[in-house]
Design a protein that fits this description.
Helix content is 8%, strand content 31%. With 117 residues, it is mostly beta strands. Residues 6-32 form the Protein YjdM N-terminal domain.
């Protein structure tokens, strides 16, 4: 919307104001440019939230909220599956949780499809 303001996380030009914050529809980043913008982006991206908005940390247990197909196989992670001892990773493709699921093995999940248990 504005020529000079870009998302500090992904660099997208498609940002818009939402109250006092600016929002990037491409990566979901929210920031306040008056509080430093670029400096806040690192802190905000380190905070990973679940589907309900709860902050996740390493070692948490989460529950899958939607049936998820496992790419490259016929397996499905069913809704309600509990995953223990998650590890948060910095991933560019959105899969920011590394975990092991019983019966499936090691895989990465998106935080938007889990809720904190």
């Amino acid at each position: 919307m504005t020529d000079e303001l870009k998302c500090p996380k992904c660099g997208s030009e498609h940002v818009y104001p939402d109250g006092t914050l600016w929002v990037c529809p491409d990566c979901g980043n929210e920031w306040n440019p008056e509080e430093g913008g670029q400096a806040d982006a690192g802190d905000a991206s380190a905070e990973i939230k679940d589907a309900n908005g709860n902050v996740l940390v390493d070692g948490d247990s989460v529950t899958v909220v939607k049936d998820l197909k496992v790419k490259g196989s016929s397996l499905v992670v069913k809704s309600g599956t509990k995953v223990k001892n998650i590890r948060l990773v910095d991933a560019t493709d959105g899969h920011n949780i590394a975990c092991k699921i019983a019966g499936i093995g090691a895989m990465n999940l998106k935080s938007e499809f889990v809720k904190k248990s």
